[in-house]
Amino acid sequence: MTRYVLVRVVNGVFVLWAALTVSFLVLHLVPGDPVSVMLRGAGGEGSAVDRAAADELRAELGLDQPVYRQYLEFVANAARLEFGTSFRSGDEVTAVLGRALPATLELAAAALLLTLVIGVAAAVAGSLLPTAPLRSAVLSATVLGNALPSFWTGILLLQVFSFGLGWFPAFGAGTIDQLVLPAVALALPGIGLLAQVLGRSLRTALAEPYVRTARAKGASRLRAVTAHALRNAAIPAMTLFGLMIGGIVAGAVVTETVFAREGIGRLTALSIGAHDFPVIRALVFLAGALYVVVNLAVDLIYPKVDPRIVLRAA
C-alpha cells in the first residue's frame, strides 16, 4: 500500500508539472498583451497606451525576460506555492484565491451533496419500483438535467423561482437561500450521470448469483438492493463521483457568473478576460492538485468497499 501511494504521489507531481507547463505555454501563445490590458483598464476603455509606461510595467512584472527564464522562475515559485502578484488587482495571488475559495467550496459542497443524495436515491428507486415503466421513467427523468446546458438551467431557475415565484434571491452569496438555486443548477448534470451509471450497475448486480441466493433465502427486494447489490455496484459510481468533483469546479465558472457569486469560477472568467497570467496559473495548479488528491482518495477507498480489490504499484 505504501509503495502504491508513493508511486501515485510521484505521478501526481508529474501531472501537476505537465498541467502548469501546458498552461504556461498556452497563455504565452494567446493573442493579446496583459500590460496593454492593464494600462487600458487604468486609463479607461479605448484609451491609448503609453509605450514608456508599458515598458516600465513589463519590466516590473518580469515579462521582458526571455520565455525560458520566465518558465524556470515560474516552476521554481510554483514548487514553493508562490504565484506572484495578480496583474488585475495588484494583490498577492494566494490572497486573491483565499478570498474566492470559501464561496466556491460552499457551493461545491452543496452541489455534491445534492448530486450524491438525489443520484443514489433515483438509482435505487429505479431498481425498487414495482413495474418496468416506472423504473425507466425515474431513470429517464434524471437524463434531462444532464441534457440541458448549465447556463440555460441557471437562467430558467432564476426566471421561475426567483423572478416569478420570488422564493429565492436571484444573486449574491452568504445565506442558505442564496445557495439553493446555484447549487441545484450545478448539481443537475451530475445527478443524471450518477443515477444512470449506478442504476445500470445495480441492474447488473441484481442478476448475479449471490443476489438470487439471498432472494431465495427470503431477503426482500429492498434488502437485496441495499444490503447486497448496492455495495458491489458502487465502484463505477465512485469513479464517476470522483471525476465530478473536478467537474464541479469547471461548472462553477458558468454558475457563479449567472448567479453573480464571487468565487473561483467567476475569478477564472475575469482573469482570462484580463490576461491575468499569475492567477490563471494558480487556478490551473489548484485544479490539478484537486484532481490528483481526489483520484488518490477514491483509489484508496476502493478496497474498503470491495475487499477483492488489491492496490498494486505498476
TrEMBL record:
The chain crosses the membrane at residues 12-30, 107-129, 141-167, 179-198, 240-259, 279-302. The keyword Transferase does not apply. It holds the Pfam family BPD_transp_1_N. It is found in: Cell membrane. Gene3D superfamilies: MetI-like. InterPro entries: BPD_transp_1_N, MetI-like, MetI-like_sf. It is a multi-pass membrane protein. Residues 101-302 form the ABC transmembrane type-1 domain. Keywords: Cell membrane, Membrane, Transmembrane, Transmembrane helix, Transport. Its main location: membrane. This is ABC transporter permease. The keyword Transport applies. CDD domains: TM_PBP2 (cd06261). Belongs to the binding-protein-dependent transport system permease family.
